[in-house]
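User: What would this chain look like folded?
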Amino acid sequence: MIDKKTLFEACKNMLLQRIADGEKAMLDAQEAANSEEKSSMGDKYETGRAMSQLARDMSARQVFENKQELANLLKLENTKTDKTIVQGSVVMANEKVFYIAVGLGVIDFNGTQVTVLSPKAPLAQLMLGKKAGDLFELNKKQFAIEQIN
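Assistant: Here's the prediction, encoded as structure tokens.
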């Protein structure tokens, strides 16, 4: 089974990198807006500034969302999962690995594909509260929960 502590750290690092990338994109967009020069070509200047401002706002929104995801993930750092699936559980079902933590999607973790799900995701909702040996169905395919960590 996957080492949950190492998986947690990988997810945390991924979110920290996304935040850093987003903050850099915000700065780059702001610098682009500030460096636009007045042009004799009408409103080219204003259009360039507006586009830079839109890019900055989009990056700011992504940074905000990633910071929220990081805060949610950090709450799970010492989560003990027993026999039932809860937020913070690593679940193996039909030889697939799921981590119910934050919405990162499928990541490559030490050569294993792990689906990192928000607890609000429909798939996570199907698993929450279940135990090893229980079944759930997704897209008319039956999944058997093999292991919970």
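The chain has a mean pLDDT of 90. If you want, I can go into more detail on any region.
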